[in-house]
Amino acid sequence: MSDRRLATAPVSSLWSPDEFEAAIRAVGAERYHDKHTFHKLLHGGKLSKGQVQAWALNRYCYQEAVPRKDAAFISRVHDRELRREWLHRVHDHDGLPPEELGGIERWLVLTDGLGLQREYVTSMAGALPATRFAVEAYVHFVREQPLTIAVASSLTELFAPSIHRERIAGMLENYDFISDDVLAYFKRRLTQAPRDATFALEYVKQNAKTRDEQEACVDAVRFKCNVLWAQLDALEHAYVEGNIPPGAFVPDVK
């Protein structure tokens, strides 16, 4: 009996690379925000223009935070090759004018197309308090966590291309106020997200050296899914259930 116990691998043994990747991907299968009811309403054409405006306005806060969290990450990295690799993420969102406008500018093309004033969007004055708290929690997480765990938090990009394809098709089919040209952000992410996710996945598989570190990386993916989920919870509470907090954007009901 005791010999059999000794021969059994301990629970805390290191996952193989394939097991580690499977654990990460299982988080997306369970928790990614494509399963949220607000997401289904958005892509299914069930929202009014005002509700879509509220989504785009609040999502801008997340888009604006992404290059800040990436810059915070870079500031902690002593490995020059890793800094070089990660820097293009900042460029992807902030752009390199005049050749490349970047993801934030493409998002503003969407909010322009939805009839929102650009100055109002970029001020974030009308964003929901929960949105602001959620995105700043993500910036703080990446700034404070060990590098490998911070990298792991970006791995929701593994699941992003499918939601972008669904968003493009669903919004074009279901909303007459959405045109193909305002969806440029999502089209570009169809190639950017897989590239970034491939690098990040290999990085965490190579640099998580203990089972505890592996599990912390999986928890980081859960945390990021929670950040995305919380934003949709806030939108549903405010703009579907009708609990808009003071100072937040109020859609025109005309």
What do you see in this structure?
The chain has 254 residues and is mainly α. It has one domain (16-240): Heme Oxygenase, Chain A (Up-down Bundle). 70% of the residues lie in helices and 0% in strands. It is built from 12 helices and no strands. The protein has helices at residues 2-7, 17-31, 37-43, 49-74, 80-94, 103-113, 118-123, 129-144, 147-152, 160-174, 184-207, 211-240. α2 (17-31) packs parallel to α12 and α8 runs antiparallel to α12 (211-240). The longest helix has 30 residues, at 211-240. 35% of the residues are buried. Mean pLDDT is 91; it is low at 1-9.
Outline the fold blueprint.
Elements: H1 2-7, H2 17-31, H3 37-43, H4 49-74, H5 80-94, H6 103-113, H7 118-123, H8 129-144, H9 147-152, H10 160-174, H11 184-207, H12 211-240
Helix pairs in contact: 2-12, 4-5, 4-6, 4-8, 4-12, 8-12, 10-11
Brief summary:
The protein is built from twelve helices and no strands.
Shape: globular
Q: Stretches where pLDDT falls below 50 for ≥5 residues?
A: 1-9
User: What would the CATH topology be?
Assistant: Heme Oxygenase, Chain A
Q: On the 0-100 scale, what is the average pLDDT?
A: 91
Structural class: mainly alpha
Task: Tell me the quaternary state.
Answer: single chain
* Helix content percent band: 55-70%
CATH class: Mainly Alpha
Strand share of the residues? under 5%
Secondary-structure element order, as H and E? HHHHHHHHHHHH
Major sheet attributes: none
What is the CATH architecture descriptor? Up-down Bundle
How many β-strand runs?
A: 0
Distance between the termini: 76 Å
Query: Mind telling me the C-alpha Rg?
Result: 20 Å
Overall tally of structural domains:
1
Count of individual helical segments? 12
**CATH H level: which superfamily?**
Heme oxygenase-like
